[in-house]
Amino acid sequence: MNKIKVDLFSDTGTRPSREMRQAMAEAEVGDEQLLEDPTVNRLNQMVADLLGKEDAIYLPSGVMANQIAFAVHCQPGDEIIMDKTAHPIHYEAGAVAVISGASIRPVDGERGIFQAEQLEAAIRSRAYHEPQSRLVSIEQTSNLGGGAIWPLKTIREVCQTAKKHGLATHMDGARLLNAVVATGISAAEYAEFFDSVWIDLSKGLGAPVGSVLAGSREFIDKAQYWKKRLGGAMRQAGIIAAGGIYALENNIERLKEDHENARYLAENICKYPEIELDLKTVETNIVLFKVKGIRASDIVEGLLERGIRVSLMGQELIRAVTHLDVSREDIGYVIDVLGELLS
Ligand SMILES: *Cc1c(COP(=O)(O)O)cnc(C)c1O
Q: Which range of residues forms the domain containing residue 107?
């Protein structure tokens, strides 16, 4: 494979900086399974405070955060309502069927966002031949929605509808902090109406490993059992948790550079006649665009030959994700190469 110079494949590609590695090397540690790792405990407290929840639990991945939350909220045979583009439907290896045994009811939202009326319509009646609607899950920001931000008003309405029908509420906040930086609305405000919510430390925040799931003390107590059951309980995990603490202390505000770079990319490539891209859809660090009259796979390959990696999302659709290892000059290079490939 060619050497990759600019990696716009995903914000998971971020590598820990020197300073982050230093903080990790010096972390105080203990046995995390006994809840005795001081660094993990500190990270959990930081995230609980950030999200306005009673307690939090450090986990090895975001997938585990979703799956543990679903397992705590649902019994086998229950139904979880989420947008048709949601991560657990497409990218979690069918884990919902295996771990919680729940089924999923996809909702036909717009760029990953659905409305309270759509939720209302998807909630089952209490007939014995129907699965029981148990949980609604939303994704902030929506990944396959191109980084679209759920407006606070929509969140409030959806959660009110859920509560009216006795459903639990979950937020997959893999990129919640991107929404926070883009809008100025706090993480706690976004999280307020959810029974469970998590953030990913290993995406734009730049830590190498981990997510933190937050909720009530009772919820986290149940989540501890699931973490152990799934083999997610660790030992001296303070080493990796320290990367997460460093990320929360240093890398939140800078997410706005990623958003500016995404916008700069979008503004420049939307001038190419073969590219279809509505600038209004670029809200955070993800740029989704279509190419017309030329195969998207040819563009993806052409970019790769010149050291630029993006993802092919469909026959015409390409995704580029900005993050802390991508500079403004890198974006300039991408704009030029794309222009050459199209001309
Ligand atoms: C990346 C992602 C996940 C999974 O997180 P991992 O840390 O990769 O396991 C879940 N949901 C969304 C929306 C994501 O983008």
A: 18-250
